[in-house]
Write a structure and sequence with these properties.
heterodimer; A: 171 residues; mainly alpha; Four Helix Bundle (Hemerythrin (Met), subunit A); 2 domains; 7 helices; 0% strand; B: 121 residues; 71% helix
Chain lengths: 171, 121
């Protein structure tokens, strides 16, 4: 890539703007439904960034699961609960801000160190057809984790049913 | 690499068109339609009866289970994509693996069915 403003740079800038803007708006909105919409933008921006990194499979799982399913799940969660904007709540939030900042900073440092330790320096090379490569790796090298995922999903499903049914009987 | 980027230029053109069309249609409608709001027009429609209470209602928890079932089977679908793409190179063993995977999730669905989550009483 030549120096200066290339198409890739512009795309990266726009996608980062969408991702970070979505996250910032999500934190600053006061109504939960608006928050979910902002979060959906953040998810889509991230998917775009994955596409730019040539990780197409991850990008489309991101769209399918996060932008699609998780956003819907959050909307359902909002529909089921009560959300009156509480003055007292707002006040408490403001007081917790410093504490939250310290916690977020600690998380950032931990994640950053972890990622730096994990990824070797320099540019990696991804396979051209990475869905195919993931498929091959998943069903030869990582068969056991793959089957464990289905057990995990089953446990999540049954657990949710048990919890929701109990609530349903009480109400 | 260049081909890859060019493919996504096409994708972004489609995304832009998809965003532009509804925005353009709604903006055009705003200029074309008459704008005479009255308080009666702004009310939510409840079969001609005066609406009472706030528009914010809490829904039954059962809706959440449908959303959750959707998410779980969505995750399952994502795992099936790489299998489908690599199917020709994987053969019978992978087919059995996927059948086990689907069967385990079907157990969950049957459990939900038996617990009458899917029926509406």
């Amino acid at each position: 890539m030549t120096a200066g403003i290339s198409g890739e740079f512009v795309a990266f800038f726009l996608l980062s703007l969408i991702t970070l803007g979505g996250a910032v708006f999500m934190l600053s909105f006061t109504r939960v439904v608006h928050m979910v919409v902002a979060l959906a933008f953040s998810f889509l921006g991230l998917a775009g960034l994955y596409v730019m990194l040539e990780a197409e499979f991850v990008a489309f799982s991101q769209v399918l699961i996060y932008a699609g399913a998780v956003s819907i799940l959050m909307l359902f969660g909002i529909m089921l609960t009560r959300h009156d904007v509480d003055e007292e709540e707002q006040d408490r939030r403001r007081r917790h801000r410093t504490f939250a900042f310290v916690a977020v900073l600690a998380l950032f440092v931990a994640l950053f160190k972890g990622i730096v330790a994990l990824v070797p320096a320099g540019e990696g090379k991804l396979a051209e057809a990475n869905t195919l490569e993931i498929g091959k790796a998943l069903f030869t090298k990582y068969v056991i984790p793959f089957e464990l995922v289905s057990v995990l999903l089953l446990v999540a499903l049954v657990g949710a049913i048990v919890l929701a049914r109990k609530e349903g009987h009480d109400a | 690499m260049i081909e890859y980027i060019n493919n996504y230029v096409l994708v972004s053109i489609f995304v832009l068109l998809g965003l532009l069309l509804p925005v353009a249609a709604l903006t055009l409608g705003r200029f074309l339609r008459p704008h005479r709001p009255t308080p009666e027009k702004g009310k939510p429609y409840e079969s001609g009866v005066e609406p009472t209470g706030s528009s914010w209602v809490r829904y039954n928890v059962r809706y959440y289970l449908f959303a959750l079932l959707f998410v779980i089977f969505d995750v399952e679908t994502v795992f099936l994509y790489p299998w489908a793409v690599a199917y020709n190179q994987l053969g019978l063993f992978a087919l059995v693996e996927v059948l086990i995977f689907i069967a385990l999730l079907l157990i969950g669905l049957v459990y939900a069915w038996k617990k009458k989550v899917l029926t509406w009483t």
